[in-house]
Amino acid sequence: MAHEELGEEDPLQAVVLCDVFTQRFAPLTLDMPRCLMPVCNVPLIEWTIETLARAGVHEVFFLATWHVAQIRAYLEEKHPALCKPPSARGGSANTTSLQKLTLIAVPEARSIGDMMRELDAHQVIKSDFVLMHGDAVGNLDLAAVVAAHKQRRRVDRNAIMTVCTMPIAEHSRARPFGDQSVFTVAPSTSQLLYYNSVPAIPRKPFIKLPLELFDDENAQSLSGKGAEIDVRNDLVHCGVDVCAIDVPPLFTENFDYQLFLREFVQGILTSDLLEAKIFLHVAPPANASSTSSGTPWDATAKGLLGSPAYGEGYMLRASGPGAYEVVSNDVLTGWTYPYTPRLRLPNSANYTHLSSLRFLGEGATYALSARIGFRSLIGPASRLEDEVDAHHSVVGARVRIGARSRVHHAFLWNDVTVGEDCELSGCIVGHNVTILDRVRLDRGTIVASNCVIGPDVHLERGAHVSLHPFRESEDDEEEDEERSGDASALGANGKGYLWEPLHTKVHDTDSDEDDTDEVENAANAQLFGMDADLADVDLSDAPSDLSSIDADSDPEALLGDETDDELDSDSELDSPDSPSGFGSVSLTLPDGTESQTYGEKVETENRLSEFRVEANASLERAFEENHAPDNAAIELKTLRMASNVPPSEVRRVVIAFVLARCDVERPKETADLLDKWGALFREVSHDDQIDAIAVMQSYCAMHLSHTRLFLPLLKKVYNDEMVSDDAILAWWRHPSSRKVVYELDEKREATVKPVVLELRKRAEPVVRHILESQESSEEDDEEDDDE
Q1: In a domain, 181, yes or no
Q2: Are residues 249 and 200 in the same domain?
Q3: How many whole angstroms separate alpha carbon 641 and alpha carbon 430?
Q4: In Å, how far are 257, 287, 316, 493 from 456, measured between CA atoms?
Q5: Cα dist. 228→156, 222, 499, 726 in Å?
Q6: SS3 of 262, please?
Q7: In this structure, are residues 71 and 45 in contact, taking their beta carbons and an 8 Å threshold?
Q8: How many domains would you assign to the chain?
Q9: Has residue 458 got a pLDDT over 80?
């Protein structure tokens, strides 16, 4: 390697890629840089700066091709001191390690590879550095990843990069179905051996791995365990990596490297000339709840494969409208803690938490008849008029929403005006847009800044509106009026052009497919939108078919070879602090899903997963803020109706949440907890007490620390009349008392079922007592009759 010293003392540098050269956010990005798009009312560039400052970065280089003047103006306005040389800063204080921000214009770049070659030409990188996409959002402990990378470099000078990934649940919308990844890894070293990109269209029924990966001698040198490798498709690239100083010159040496993962990383891994190695970091999830969470990290390895857990947290790219929605929801849910509206967002206004993940900015107001629903953020100085219904939405600053309008799963940026009787669903509306009366925007609609729509207009699914006629990209000088539609389609007072929806271009036979990236081709690119309909798309094999690890449905695999004692004391999967209280139990789909299409099942699982997250967040607040159980029950009922899930899901969430906070070693505290929250247990159990007891039994069986609690719990719910004596007898006779009511894989169920039967046996004294009491009562009744 050219760099003889790793330069430990050199200040840490970072490179931020402001452009990614896709059109997923068009037409929004025709007039503004992607890195200034707001996520929860915070420009993406602020998320980037906060993440890098927290990681100990001293100097950041922003590489930008388009809208350079806007980015420079923003940095100079918001971070003037960091944009000046130290000698010109005067007495301005800086409380972080971050010392300098530099914007480098690369106007000729048309790919990430071009950007990296320009970076190499500038010769500004002095040591190992952080490479980050400008649309990555999260709280990943990047400092720990950097430290591990440097330690690895001291041992192996060929270790040029650490790629950061995060595990994602199989059917989560956080998984980019249009661009999934398969990582092949040496489990004992975390060395990345091979990388596959798996677009949905064109269909890939299988993946190819080089035969040499399975060669005993080669595999022995890689992992020390023969031909053992892990093939994982449950991971998503975080959009941030740690690179050696050798990386930019490698782009310069090979002009074929244009894309980062699919060309550069794969090119390094398959090169016969280079000895360079790339390693994989799998971020352990932090202690929070998320719509993207699901598969826990590899518990056997305690985090990074082959080494102790470190570098925990969440980091996900808002790489398209669909991912933008997921990331926004996860911020509101608290997955990016401490960067949440409840505490603080990077360089942002303060928000008041109303409850149920509803946040109100300073100076924001709403009419008494207006309704702000779950997981909603209303920006400063905004106003919601009479009978407005807004939920699962982010509203920017100085937004006005007219009377009787509905805003659901929508993102309204600053200075938007919405008229009366409008309906905005699943859309992104740019800055300073005016929506006149009686306008309906269907899911997937994107309205670029400064447009006017209405009145009396209905824009159907996937509509794109811009002040400009259709253009293929930011630097496209040819505007296609034909593909921009009729301006009158925007209404009598409309201003702008209605672009042709993306899904209508899927079968455009006149397009030149030879030069089109297979991931960004129109058929595949539609999967990145908020309106992605998986039921209408011929997807490649289900995600689990490509993965050698299906941890989300195989909890036993996550536990590895740990003993029962270790599970009782060490496993976070059984911990009462586990946010869901479910450990790694798979979600059981409601009846009637067997006949659903794959896309419908995905949507159902997403809805159930989302409900679990919000219900647990609601219960967490109720416990922390000491709410009355009746109020908690009302909030859960409202949430259930909004999420359209069956009552059994509420029952399982509540029982698991309460039981997770019961401690057999603290009987008094546990009794006090049940005394207070017994009313909530009773409320969610009244419609099916048999199922409630069975859920309690299975939960205790799956969590070994709770097996000793089952009998006292059963006595408690019986004595306090949370369930009736007839319900206990009916449970005893019912098949659910002899099986695990949670959906587990065969191996896990075989382990848990004997415990379920043992707990049923332990319940015999309670059942016997009830029978004897009933017999005694019947005898007394007979004596009374005789008299």
Answers
A1: yes
A2: yes
A3: 31
A4: 49, 47, 38, 10
A5: 22, 9, 51, 54
A6: helix
A7: yes
A8: 3
A9: yes
Q: Which residues contact 419 (CB under 8 A, 6 or more apart)?
A: 402, 405, 435, 436, 437, 438, 439, 454, 455
Q: Say if residues 748 and 554 touch (Cβ distance below 8 Å).
A: yes
Q: Kindly report the length of the chain.
A: 787
Token pair of 227 as six digits: 């031909």
For 275-310, give one letter per residue: b (16+ CB within 10 A) or e.
ebbbbbbbbbbbebbbbbbbbbbbbebbbbbbbebb
Q: Contact, 630 vs 679, CB < 8 A? A: yes
Spatial contact of 241 and 146, defined as CB atoms under 8 Å apart? no
* Mean pLDDT computed over 173-186: 78
> Are residue 690 and residue 730 in the same domain, yes or no?
yes
Collapsing DSSP to helix, strand or coil, 234 comes out as coil
- Residues 597-611 have pLDDT tens digits of 445 556 667 677 778
User: Could you tell me if 103 and 115 are in contact, meaning their C-beta atoms sit under 8 angstroms apart?
Assistant: no
* 492 phi and psi angles, rounded to 5 deg: -60, -35
Q: What is the pLDDT of residue 325?
A: 92
3-state secondary structure of 9: coil
Residue in 516, 453, 512 with CA at minimum distance from that of residue 487: 453
> The CATH number of the domain where 663 resides is what?
1.25.40.180
Strands 439-441 and 457-459: parallel
Instruction: Fill in the amino acid letter for 755.
Output: V
Could you tell me if 321 and 410 lie in one domain? no
Residues 562, 302: contact at Cβ < 8 Å?
A: no
Helix (H, G, I), strand (E, B) or coil at 296: coil
Are 590 and 685 contained in the same domain? yes
Q: Is 445 contained in some domain?
A: yes
C-alpha 618/C-alpha 612 separation (Å) is 10
> What does the H/E/C string look like for 66-131?
CCHHHHHHHHHHHCCCCCCCHHHCCCCCCCCCCCEEEEEECCCCCCHHHHHHHHHHHCCCCCCEEE
The pTM for the full model equals 0.70
Rounded-to-integer distance, Cα 367 and Cα 617, Å: 26
Nearest 10 degrees: Cα torsion 80, 82, 83, 84:
90
Structural domain boundaries enclosing 488: 350-501
Q: Residue 573: what are its φ and ψ, rounded to 5°? A: -70, -25
Q: Which of the pair, 591 or 581, is modelled with greater confidence? A: 591
Lowest average pLDDT, out of 542-546, 578-582, 663-667, goes to 578-582
Angstrom distance (rounded) from CA 558 to CA 556: 5
In a domain, 158, yes or no: yes
Tokens of 196: 């596959």
Query: Could you tell me if 736 and 641 lie in one domain?
Result: yes
